[in-house]
# Entry
Amino acid sequence: MNPTSCATVTVNQLDPRIARLVFSNPTHRNALSAQLLQSLDESLTALAAQRIPVVILGSEVGQSVWSAGHDIRELQHDRDPIAYGKPLERVLRSIRAYPGVVIALVSGSVWGGAVDLVMSCDMVVADHSASFAMTPVNIGLPYTTSGLLRFFHNLPIHVLKELFFTANKLDVQRAERYGLVNRLVDSDVLEATALELAQGIASKAPLAVAAVKEQLRILEDLQPMPVQAMEQIAELRRQACASADFGEGLAAFAERRPAVFSGN
# Structure
């Protein structure tokens, strides 16, 4: 059996203007496998074609893990899983370019690339079990400039550095304080709160909402960078992705032991 065959994406039409997009990978803590990400991308494309103004995105409520991030089994064969053309980056671009509003509905802990998935959504509704941890440094993976910019626009710089340097969890109370979470509610009213927010948005002029979203996306992307700086960043990431430390990080994760990094 295909090891990722348990990964599914389900589209539930809550009303003619609102869709609930539910992803699931239960045997791997809702990890973002390539199959699951492809299904998410296809579902977002289909909903955009149907001109659905609001999409509520998330795993099922009440699980301890919203998503564990990248499927580590697949990283054994991919030295740079967050490069421009990779499945996660394609989904993030689809969310940011979606011609309507995408609301992240978060219950449980969010790890690694799944945090970027949440950050790419337009709004976040979370319950008190939510937390966010950026864990690439645990396996020696350098994050991308585009990914860092998404955090740069949304977090104070010292909090951003804490998140990426330590891989410690950012609890949902701090996340709300920094404006990452729009609504923080109890689990039993989480879906109702997201739906109420979605209904309010869906009642507005969809072309106006889409136009404002696209303007904001363009403004966020206005980050001029000298060619030399781009080349320097690319070389730093290439060295880290090709390093022995990255291999050690993946091996340590698979063997459930602390990684021993050498800086090589």
Q: What stands out?
A: The radius of gyration is 18 Å. The longest strand covers residues 8-15.
